[in-house]
Amino acid sequence: MMIGHIAMRELRTLFLSPLAWSILAVVQFILAWLFLSQLDQYIRLQPQIALMQSPPGLAEVIVAPLFGSAGIVMLLVVPLITMRLVSDERRARTLPLLFSAPVSMSEIILGKYLGVMAFLSIMLGLIALMPLSLLVAGSLDLGQFASGLLGLFLMLAAFAALGLYISTLTAQPTVAAVASFGALLLLWVINLAGNAVDDSGSRGIFAWLSLQQHYEALLRGIFDSSDLVYYLLFIAVFLVFAVRRLDADRLQH
Known about the structure:
The chain contains twelve helices and no strands.
């Protein structure tokens, strides 16, 4: 009950902020432009595609690149949304009031997390409408579409969990945003570090740690339970870290 109340409060606060509306508008504009560019390219390549024995479908040419670009855009956007979740409370010195309320640290963190996820789910729903509009004039591989959408949702959930945790570490929202972006970028490209080593075991570890590696498999329509486990573990670890951090703060007050 308290989790739902905190989540609704966070969602309402986000929609009262001009930053959230600006982010929604800018993200939709950028992705709509990329979507129309991919669609235009697909139409121009129709003569060549018609000659192929196994021509690529709309999901491969338009949907996968669109979701891939959305992942990169969100790498920058999600830290801007999560940066103030706890750091703002710390800066405004309202954390002691929160600690005195009859609510556990887990409920506070989960409530804030679900509030952000509700906002990101609305954004994801608006993004999903673009590929779904293709059904008006053509056919779409719904399996690959659903796999890519699931991948984007899981990645946003992972971004939000890490951003929330880093927001518990500082009283400066800007610092939280920059640190979250740096950490996410590192985890996005960490597989490139694996390419520089000769040991196949180390390469495998770097590849497994990479957010991008797991996301690309889902974009291709390949559903592997290990990718799902990776994202769930990632989310759980950073939410537990956030609870522990807030609990340590509570003991000091």
